[in-house]
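Problem 12. The chain below contains 126 residues. Write out its predicted structure in token notation.
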Amino acid sequence: MLFLLNDVVFDLDEACPVTPGDARRFEKLGFDYVLELGCEMFAEDPMLHLNDPGRARRLAWLIADRAPEINAALFAADAAGCAPELVEPRFCALPDAVIRQLSTKARRGRLDATTCDKAVWNRLAA
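Solution.
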């Protein structure tokens, strides 16, 4: 399964990003908790998806595991160290063709925040 987190496409089928023991621990976490966790992580580091792709991939896995219909998430934080309440989370279910196209652009080094915004989030539209 492909999952877009901010402007990085992760293939969650490659290998499970968590150990079986961690997966059992995470079973009890609801979507609201995962949402709060994501906001805290991106409040700490707004570029988490680039600076720590391992942690970002685990977050993507948690989101997809709790809400299988979601395959794209955006956590927009203004600055590192901001309050988690100021992080703006967004989620959506992209058609397979769209997320595959984004994945192809990523492999070619042509996927960035502006491209993702235009294709998915429309935050920069005036």
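Discussion. The helical segments are 20-26, 31-44, 48-51, 53-66, 96-107, 113-121. Students who got a different answer should revisit the alignment rule from Section 12.3.
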